[in-house]
Amino acid sequence: MAVTTGTTWDILLNDEPTTRLDPHGSVSARAAYQAALYDRAVLVDLRSARRRAHDGELPAGLSVAVVDRLELGVWLRESLAARVLLLDDDGDRAGRLAASAGPRLAAVAGGFAGWRAAGLPVAS
After folding, report:
1. What is the DSSP letter of 89?
2. Using CA atoms, how far apart are residues 15 and 1, in angstroms rounded to an integer?
3. Which letter, b or e, does each residue of 70-81 get, where b requires 16 or more Cβ atoms within 10 Å of its Cβ?
4. In degrees rounded to 5, what are phi and psi of residue 67?
5. Neighbours of 83 (CB within 10 A)
6. pLDDT per residue as tens, the chain (124 positions)
């Protein structure tokens, strides 16, 4: 029996939450933060160096990779990460990339703007 309230809970001997994707293949900023914090996924920051310098970096302590979007295909082939969450400025480009790939990829809904709106930590 499964109960759904934003997060799907698999009722097993060891209850463990699994991220539920919306129809567009994205996860909320809060779900992405928790997944990267507990090493359940790698958060791939696709923003340019200029945007990261202007808007802020993702905080230390998270499972994060900074990848140029032109290098993403190579990075994905070489990465051993089972789950990859793409973060861009507003979620649009990451959403298109995730939608064209398999279940290994998902976009962070709202991108970095959604991250900030959710009140998640940002390093300056």
Report:
1. S
2. 12
3. eebeebbeeeeb
4. -130, 130
5. 18
6. 444 444 443 333 334 444 444 545 799 999 999 999 999 999 999 999 999 999 999 999 999 999 998 899 999 999 999 999 999 999 999 999 998 888 899 999 999 999 999 999 999 8
Spatial separation of the C-alpha atoms in residues 113 and 12, rounded to whole Å = 36
55 neighbors 112 (Cβ within 8 angstroms): yes
Q: What residues have CB less than 8 Å from 40, skipping those under 6 apart?
A: 19, 34, 83
Look up residue 99 and give its two tokens. 């939608």
pTM: 0.79
Question: Using an 8 Å Cβ cutoff, are 109 and 29 in contact?
Answer: yes
Contact 108, 114 (CB under 8 A): yes
* Pairwise CA distance, residues 109 & 111, whole Å: 5
Residue with tokens 């799907």: 8
Report which DSSP code applies to 42.
E
Round to whole Å and give the CA distance between 51 and 2: 41
